[in-house]
Write a structure and sequence with these properties.
It is a single chain. By secondary structure, the protein is of the alpha+beta class. 30% of the residues lie in helices and 25% in strands. It has eleven helices and 20 strands. The strands form five sheets. A nine-stranded mixed sheet has the order 4-5-10-7-11-3-2-9-8. The protein has a five-stranded antiparallel sheet with strand order 15-14-17-13-16, sandwiched between helices. It has a two-stranded antiparallel ribbon with strand order 1-19. α4 packs across α7. The longest helix is centred in the middle third of the chain and has 19 residues. It is globular and about 65 Å long.
Length: 390
């Protein structure tokens, strides 16, 4: 755990957020300047175009510097129980621990017990791998999901937390809400490990996948690559959350198509994957579109595939359009007002999404990349705890 004067300057949001809003990361840089911060140990995707070997070397050097100056307090053989207060006041609960990378596989058709939920874009792995392969420590924004409808794994810690040591409590920067963490060690850690083992035995009878990566899959894939090539530890840090947590909300991820003629793109979508003529709920999925001078609704034909997203993503990929992924509708509309851009608003998830989530992954494999987001951009996991990987 970082032993710093201002934890709000230490904890920084996941690197794959605000990719089209570099001004957010400029604010992070200004806010954390001259202070020990996780910002100095990560590479935001919004700045990837500016990244080079020197920048990555500086990140690794800073890690070593922080270790040499004893900026961390080490807790062995422990978990951390986390409560994250979100923007609407709800509390999302989780456990920070480590997984065995030999039990994780992101490749399509995988039968591993820990599995990706969405298609992995292998081109996004090398920059993260370049940071990790020479890193002494890892910080994680990975959220792993379990299918614990009985609420037997994480929720008991909510009751017993008052007997555990609180190791942090503070407000996260730039509207990220509040976060608190308690050390789960000794008998509490042994009891949690036993509950995890019981969950694995029980779920193995019904599901081929026991844990699913809800967020941060590309970072976890990079950790897997580094382990397989002998650079770093066999284990990787994650936060485990229960898919049945009431505060864990599935949100659609919207698309912005860049450097196109908006009218031509909309016409192409209508002609190729939309219903022609009479439309209704049985034969189409409605999605909204936005551009600089026009907005409207497209009716994706259900006959074209299993969901609006699957049909649309395949069309965009086949045409090799330049796409960015946006989590919030307001941001989508704002960014769509730029020249030569079209914003495509994905439909919301229905009430059965959580209940069917693990069975769908078990039966059908991974979903298209960027299918869903767990909450708004500001509600993603912040880099906070660190773990030695060399």
């Amino acid at each position: 755990m970082p032993n710093v004067d201002d934890m709000s300057k230490w904890a920084v949001i996941a690197c794959d957020q605000f990719t089209s809003q570099p001004d957010y990361w400029e604010k992070v840089s200004d806010y954390t300047s001259y202070s020990p911060s996780a910002y100095n140990l990560i590479l935001p995707e919004a700045l990837l175009n500016d990244a080079d070997a020197q920048k990555i070397a500086q990140i690794n050097s800073t890690m070593n510097d922080y270790l040499e100056h004893n900026i961390f307090t080490e807790y062995k053989n422990s978990y951390v129980y986390v409560e994250r207060t979100l923007l609407d006041g709800s509390i999302r609960r989780g456990i920070v621990g480590a997984i065995d990378l030999e039990q994780y596989d992101y490749n399509p058709g995988s039968t591993s017990k820990i599995r990706a939920t969405e298609q992995t874009v292998t081109e996004r792995i090398p920059p993260r791998k370049a940071v990790r392969e020479n890193a002494a420590i890892e910080l994680s924004h990975v959220i792993l999901l379990c299918d614990d409808e009985r609420k037997e794994l994480i929720e008991p810690l909510t009751i017993s937390k008052h007997s555990m040591k609180k190791i942090y409590s503070f407000d996260l920067m730039l509207g990220g809400g509040k976060i608190q963490g308690w050390l789960v060690s000794g008998e509490s850690a042994r009891a949690l490990t036993m509950r995890l083992e019981q969950y694995i035995r029980r779920k193995s009878r019904a599901l081929s996948v026991l844990f699913a990566v809800g967020d941060g899959n590309h970072s976890l894939a990079s950790a897997k690559a580094c382990y397989e090539e002998g650079f770093t530890s066999r284990y990787a840090m994650v936060e485990l959350e229960n898919i049945y947590d009431d505060a864990l909300k599935f949100e659609p991820i919207h698309r912005i198509v860049k450097n196109v003629n908006p009218a031509e793109l909309i016409t192409a979508i209508k002609n190729n994957i939309c219903v022609n003529g009479w439309v209704n709920a049985k034969n189409s999925w409605p999605i909204n579109f936005y551009s600089q001078d026009k907005e409207g609704t497209l009716h994706i034909a259900k006959a074209k595939g299993a969901s609006a997203l699957i049909v649309l993503q395949k069309f965009l990929d086949d045409k090799n359009y330049e796409i960015d992924y946006i989590h919030d509708t307001d941001a989508l509309k704002e960014l769509s007002s730029a020249e030569n851009c079209v914003g495509l608003e994905m439909p919301p998830f229905d009430e059965n999404a959580k209940r069917d989530f693990f069975s769908v992954i078990s039966k059908n494999g991974v979903m298209p990349r960027k299918t869903f987001s767990m909450g708004h951009a500001q509600e993603k996991r912040y880099y906070l705890e660190a773990r030695r990987i060399k």
